[in-house]
Design a protein that fits this description.
alpha/beta; Rossmann fold
Protein backbone atom coordinates (compact mmCIF):
# COMPACT_ATOMS: atom_id res chain seq x y z
CA UNK A 1 0.00 0.00 0.00
CA UNK A 2 1.26 3.50 -0.81
CA UNK A 3 1.32 5.81 2.20
CA UNK A 4 2.03 9.51 1.79
CA UNK A 5 3.35 11.06 4.99
CA UNK A 6 2.82 14.78 5.50
CA UNK A 7 5.35 15.86 8.10
CA UNK A 8 8.91 14.67 8.51
CA UNK A 9 9.53 15.06 12.23
CA UNK A 10 10.02 12.37 14.86
CA UNK A 11 6.53 10.90 14.53
CA UNK A 12 6.55 10.82 10.73
CA UNK A 13 9.98 9.22 10.70
CA UNK A 14 9.14 6.61 13.34
CA UNK A 15 5.82 5.55 11.80
CA UNK A 16 7.24 5.73 8.29
CA UNK A 17 10.07 3.39 9.24
CA UNK A 18 7.67 0.84 10.73
CA UNK A 19 5.38 0.97 7.70
CA UNK A 20 8.28 0.64 5.27
CA UNK A 21 9.70 -2.28 7.26
CA UNK A 22 6.28 -3.93 6.97
CA UNK A 23 6.47 -3.75 3.18
CA UNK A 24 4.42 -0.64 2.46
CA UNK A 25 5.61 2.03 0.06
CA UNK A 26 6.29 5.27 1.90
CA UNK A 27 6.79 8.82 0.68
CA UNK A 28 7.96 11.35 3.27
CA UNK A 29 7.10 15.00 2.61
CA UNK A 30 7.49 18.47 4.06
CA UNK A 31 7.80 22.04 2.88
CA UNK A 32 11.51 21.56 2.12
CA UNK A 33 11.77 18.06 0.63
CA UNK A 34 15.28 18.71 -0.65
CA UNK A 35 16.41 18.23 2.95
CA UNK A 36 14.84 14.78 3.26
CA UNK A 37 16.81 12.65 0.81
CA UNK A 38 19.05 10.82 3.25
CA UNK A 39 16.36 10.55 5.91
CA UNK A 40 13.88 9.09 3.45
CA UNK A 41 16.43 6.52 2.28
CA UNK A 42 17.20 5.62 5.89
CA UNK A 43 13.59 4.69 6.54
CA UNK A 44 13.31 2.76 3.31
CA UNK A 45 11.17 5.30 1.50
CA UNK A 46 11.28 8.25 -0.85
CA UNK A 47 10.66 11.96 -0.44
CA UNK A 48 8.87 14.77 -2.19
CA UNK A 49 6.76 17.90 -1.72
CA UNK A 50 3.55 17.75 0.29
CA UNK A 51 1.32 17.84 -2.78
CA UNK A 52 3.10 14.77 -4.14
CA UNK A 53 2.48 12.83 -0.94
CA UNK A 54 -1.18 13.89 -0.98
CA UNK A 55 -1.75 12.80 -4.59
CA UNK A 56 0.50 9.71 -4.64
CA UNK A 57 -0.61 8.07 -1.42
CA UNK A 58 -3.46 5.59 -1.23
CA UNK A 59 -3.55 6.55 2.44
CA UNK A 60 -2.27 9.78 3.97
CA UNK A 61 -0.59 10.08 7.37
CA UNK A 62 -0.68 13.51 9.02
CA UNK A 63 2.37 13.88 11.24
CA UNK A 64 2.88 17.63 11.22
CA UNK A 65 2.35 20.16 14.04
CA UNK A 66 -1.35 20.06 14.92
CA UNK A 67 -2.47 23.54 13.91
CA UNK A 68 -0.55 23.40 10.60
CA UNK A 69 -3.29 21.22 9.13
CA UNK A 70 -5.47 24.26 8.57
CA UNK A 71 -2.61 25.98 6.70
CA UNK A 72 -2.16 23.26 4.09
CA UNK A 73 -2.56 24.47 0.51
CA UNK A 74 -6.02 24.05 -0.99
CA UNK A 75 -4.50 21.80 -3.64
CA UNK A 76 -3.38 19.43 -0.88
CA UNK A 77 -6.78 19.52 0.81
CA UNK A 78 -8.48 18.81 -2.52
CA UNK A 79 -6.09 15.92 -3.20
CA UNK A 80 -7.05 14.07 -0.01
CA UNK A 81 -10.82 14.26 -0.54
CA UNK A 82 -12.18 10.73 -0.37
CA UNK A 83 -8.94 9.31 1.01
CA UNK A 84 -8.30 7.84 4.44
CA UNK A 85 -6.24 10.39 6.34
CA UNK A 86 -4.64 9.08 9.52
CA UNK A 87 -4.41 11.93 11.99
CA UNK A 88 -1.38 11.33 14.21
CA UNK A 89 -1.19 14.96 15.37
CA UNK A 90 -1.57 16.28 18.91
CA UNK A 91 -2.78 19.73 19.99
CA UNK A 92 -0.18 21.41 22.15
CA UNK A 93 -1.17 24.32 24.42
CA UNK A 94 2.38 25.59 24.03
CA UNK A 95 2.67 25.46 20.23
CA UNK A 96 -0.98 25.35 19.10
CA UNK A 97 -2.56 27.52 21.77
CA UNK A 98 -5.60 28.71 19.83
CA UNK A 99 -6.30 25.35 18.18
CA UNK A 100 -5.75 23.47 21.44
CA UNK A 101 -8.23 25.77 23.17
CA UNK A 102 -10.79 25.17 20.42
CA UNK A 103 -10.39 21.39 20.80
CA UNK A 104 -10.74 21.55 24.58
CA UNK A 105 -13.80 23.81 24.49
CA UNK A 106 -15.53 21.73 21.80
CA UNK A 107 -14.97 18.49 23.73
CA UNK A 108 -15.32 16.40 20.57
CA UNK A 109 -11.68 15.44 20.16
CA UNK A 110 -8.79 16.55 18.02
CA UNK A 111 -9.85 14.20 15.21
CA UNK A 112 -13.04 16.15 14.58
CA UNK A 113 -11.07 19.41 14.53
CA UNK A 114 -8.87 17.96 11.80
CA UNK A 115 -11.88 16.66 9.85
CA UNK A 116 -13.40 20.16 9.83
CA UNK A 117 -10.25 21.41 8.08
CA UNK A 118 -10.00 18.53 5.63
CA UNK A 119 -13.58 18.49 4.45
CA UNK A 120 -14.32 15.40 2.39
CA UNK A 121 -11.39 13.36 3.71
CA UNK A 122 -12.00 10.19 5.73
CA UNK A 123 -10.16 11.13 8.90
CA UNK A 124 -9.11 8.38 11.31
CA UNK A 125 -7.39 9.27 14.56
CA UNK A 126 -4.49 6.94 15.38
CA UNK A 127 -0.78 6.80 16.28
CA UNK A 128 -1.01 9.95 18.41
CA UNK A 129 -1.22 8.35 21.86
CA UNK A 130 2.30 6.84 21.86
CA UNK A 131 5.47 8.89 21.61
CA UNK A 132 7.78 8.40 18.64
CA UNK A 133 10.41 7.02 21.00
CA UNK A 134 7.99 4.42 22.39
CA UNK A 135 6.90 3.38 18.92
CA UNK A 136 10.51 2.88 17.89
CA UNK A 137 11.48 1.02 21.07
CA UNK A 138 8.46 -1.21 21.60
CA UNK A 139 7.26 -2.13 18.11
CA UNK A 140 6.91 -5.89 17.63
CA UNK A 141 7.82 -6.64 21.22
CA UNK A 142 6.83 -9.99 22.68
CA UNK A 143 3.23 -10.26 23.84
CA UNK A 144 1.55 -8.41 25.30
CA UNK A 145 2.18 -5.72 22.71
CA UNK A 146 1.46 -2.06 23.39
CA UNK A 147 -1.88 -0.74 22.17
CA UNK A 148 -2.67 2.07 19.77
CA UNK A 149 -6.19 3.53 20.07
CA UNK A 150 -8.17 4.31 16.92
CA UNK A 151 -11.22 6.54 16.42
CA UNK A 152 -13.21 6.67 13.18
CA UNK A 153 -16.71 7.39 11.93
CA UNK A 154 -16.44 4.52 9.45
CA UNK A 155 -15.97 0.88 10.50
CA UNK A 156 -14.19 -0.08 7.27
CA UNK A 157 -11.73 2.81 7.60
CA UNK A 158 -11.05 1.83 11.20
CA UNK A 159 -10.42 -1.76 10.11
CA UNK A 160 -7.99 -0.60 7.42
CA UNK A 161 -6.00 1.49 9.87
CA UNK A 162 -6.10 -1.31 12.45
CA UNK A 163 -4.35 -3.50 9.91
CA UNK A 164 -1.58 -0.92 9.51
CA UNK A 165 -1.22 -0.66 13.28
CA UNK A 166 -0.81 -4.44 13.46
CA UNK A 167 1.74 -4.30 10.64
CA UNK A 168 3.72 -1.82 12.73
CA UNK A 169 3.86 -4.23 15.67
CA UNK A 170 1.15 -2.91 17.97
CA UNK A 171 -2.32 -4.00 19.04
CA UNK A 172 -5.07 -1.81 17.55
CA UNK A 173 -7.96 -0.83 19.82
CA UNK A 174 -10.93 0.76 18.08
CA UNK A 175 -12.35 3.13 20.68
CA UNK A 176 -15.37 4.42 18.78
CA UNK A 177 -16.42 7.24 16.48
CA UNK A 178 -14.09 10.09 15.63
CA UNK A 179 -15.33 12.22 18.53
CA UNK A 180 -14.05 9.53 20.90
CA UNK A 181 -10.53 10.70 20.07
CA UNK A 182 -11.15 13.08 22.98
CA UNK A 183 -10.59 10.09 25.27
CA UNK A 184 -6.96 9.66 24.18
CA UNK A 185 -5.97 13.23 23.37
CA UNK A 186 -3.15 15.00 25.29
CA UNK A 187 -4.00 15.50 28.93
CA UNK A 188 -6.00 12.30 29.23
CA UNK A 189 -5.05 9.40 31.46
CA UNK A 190 -4.07 7.15 28.57
CA UNK A 191 -2.10 9.58 26.39
CA UNK A 192 1.52 8.38 26.14
CA UNK A 193 0.86 5.94 28.98
CA UNK A 194 2.26 2.96 27.00
CA UNK A 195 -0.56 0.54 27.82
CA UNK A 196 -1.39 -2.94 26.58
CA UNK A 197 -4.74 -3.49 24.86
CA UNK A 198 -6.45 -4.90 28.01
CA UNK A 199 -5.06 -2.03 30.08
CA UNK A 200 -6.23 0.57 27.54
CA UNK A 201 -9.71 -0.93 27.31
CA UNK A 202 -9.98 -0.98 31.11
CA UNK A 203 -8.92 2.66 31.41
CA UNK A 204 -11.43 3.71 28.74
CA UNK A 205 -14.23 1.50 30.00
CA UNK A 206 -14.49 -0.46 26.75
Amino acid sequence: MRIGIIGAGHAGGAIGTLLADAGHEVLLSCRHPEQLGERARNIGGQCGPIIQAATWGDIILLALPFSHTQDLDMAVKDAVIGKVVIDATNPSPEHDARAAKEVTEAGTGSGTWTLARLYGAKVVKAYNALSAASMTEYAHRDAPRLAIPIASDDADDAKLVAGLVSDCGFDPVVVGELASSASFDPGTEVWQAALTAPELRAKLGL
